[in-house]
Amino acid sequence: MRSQRSATLLTVFVAALSLSVSGARADDVSNDRYYANQTPYGDPASTSIVAPPAGYELFFVENVGRHGARSMVSAGTEKRVLAVWKAASRKGALTSRGKRLDDQVRAFQRAEKKVGYGNLSTVGKAEWRGIGRRTATTYGGFLAAASARGEKVAMQTSPVYRTKQSANYFRLGLQEVVPSLATSPRTVNQDLLIEEGSTKAGRAQIAQVRTRIAVRAAAKDVLLRVYKKSYVKRLKDPVGKALDIYLLYSTAPGMAGDTSVTFAEYVPVSAARYLAEATDVSNFYRFGPGVTGQTSSYKQARPVLKDFFSALDKRIAGGSTAAVFRLAHGEVTMPFAALIKAPGSQQQSPGYWSYGSNPWRGFVAGRLAGNIEWAAYRNATGEALVTMRYNEQPVQFNASCTPSAQSPYFYRVAELKRCLG
């Protein structure tokens, strides 16, 4: 039985890491199951870069990324789900399918306790190790030469353990390809742990989404798979209770290497679509582009952008740090993407937000292990050009930034300071 269970877990784990990642877009990971910002990153075999203009050589790389897939950050959601389930059980209000939910939640909890609440799962460890491996494959010659010269490769994290784990597995991935690579001691950057920035108008939209007919119908669909109709009718805050089950469902793919529990039988894709939209509304107004004309949902990422420019300036001035890798949270990568107006994070909302009215998606901007990278190249005269990758795919800076004459994907540093502010 143990070997059979291990084989099953391996199959699910491989499936979770095999989400489609191809082409040159930042949003190519599949969204067909609607996991919102809990979507696993995937582990593509390779990624691409745009070749620099003739005569330019790489001299600096930096990034910021979200930690990898993890367990739930606490048992709070599971406790709420189990409390509702227990009350229904006492009243004989469970469906035949719903009777299984208790055992599945407890099995999920056992896996989480082994991992540690809030810590990287097996999938999460593989995600950042894979990013490290591909980064070193792409920039291996530069990293090896920098290490041979005694230059620094810096690792920054937030104070939270899962970001430190992500940095460690990223380093292991780098060293799989460049064994000689030495990284500086990991440091904590407090700017990589920031608060949400919703406004009164944004919070009103977050509250409004729970009243939408489609969201309420999706919540009812989920709850009726677990509880009898008479019980569901009496529940207070049915949308909130369905979102708790949805959060288990959306977290499960990131735990696929540690448990075979998926919760998919309780959350059909048709319901997940609207519960993901409700989740995205919340993140859009708290950490994304936010309300038209307001900046508080993303301005808290400005210190991170300032650090990008500061690290780049120091390198241009002759500094010995060849790379800076920052491991943070979705609460950083989402506002950072909005601040620099990365693809998909360029459009604010004057009011009602939906998938039909705005291109922002949590599975792109907030994806587990999602990352934004700048690579700087210079020529023999010392002129520096910067190019960007979003989730390891080449992208242009926003339309307010004028690219260099040499390539539409490469920008002068002074121009980026002007257009990004």
Automatic annotation (TrEMBL):
Enzyme class: hydrolase
Keywords: Hydrolase, Membrane, Signal
Signal peptide (UniProt feature, chain positions): 1-26
Gene Ontology cellular-component annotations: membrane
Cellular compartments annotated: Membrane
Record GO terms (molecular function): bisphosphoglycerate 3-phosphatase activity
Enzyme Commission number(s) from the entry: 3.1.3.62, 3.1.3.80
Recorded superkingdom: Bacteria
Catalyzed reactions: 1D-myo-inositol 1,2,4,5,6-pentakisphosphate + H2O = 1D-myo-inositol 1,2,5,6-tetrakisphosphate + phosphate; 1D-myo-inositol 1,2,5,6-tetrakisphosphate + H2O = 1D-myo-inositol 1,2,6-trisphosphate + phosphate; 1D-myo-inositol hexakisphosphate + H2O = 1D-myo-inositol 1,2,4,5,6-pentakisphosphate + phosphate; (2R)-2,3-bisphosphoglycerate + H2O = (2R)-2-phosphoglycerate + phosphate
The keyword Hydrolase belongs to this UniProt entry's keyword annotation: yes
Stated family: Belongs to the histidine acid phosphatase family. MINPP1 subfamily.
Protein name: Multiple inositol polyphosphate phosphatase 1
